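Q: You know discrete backbone vocabularies at least as well as I do. I have my own habits and do not want them to colour yours. No explanation is needed for now; the record alone will do.
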Amino acid sequence: MKNKLNTFTDFIAAGEYLVAEKIAARDRLAAEGGSAGGLLMGAVVNMRPDLFSAVIAHVPFVDVLNTMSDATLPLTVGEYEEWGNPATKDEYEYIKRYCPYTNLKKGAYPAMLVKTSFNDSQVFYHEPAKYVARLRTLKTDGSPLLLKTNMAAGHGGASGRYDFLHEIALDEAFLLTRFGLAK
């Protein structure tokens, strides 16, 4: 809980290492994560929007402060141990330091594909939708910011082999297009 910021700074350090060691080029560095990993994507994009060229966030938990402030939601109270309880002042202040929605600001952001699911019982579809809507008002660059809502899926995405493959194909097409490899 009180070391959560390490998640983001460690991920950023790993990305910086990949670029510094020429394992990856900055203009070809992509990041992907879902749910709490989607929180990771939102936080690192806020902290280092220049580091990644493309980001894919699946059902991202990007409005931590508001969601964790609603004790009537099914998972909230049980998650206080990991994220903290915003009703406690010092825990509120800590969450506020990394909450992706709260920390959006005017500036350039990498290309982003944000995916949500209408039937997600863990990260409600409106959370990524309002994140993207707000980010669209703040972006100062021309990189794509896409929101894809799967109207039939839940937290784990589409079930069924071909539906899942279609979801992966969209992710890959997004990356190939971003890196100029799609014809």
Observations:
- The helical segments are 4-20, 36-47, 64-68, 76-83, 89-98, 126-138, 161-178.
- The chain has seven helices and four strands.
- The mean pLDDT is 91.
- Residues 67 and 170 are 28 Å apart (CA to CA).
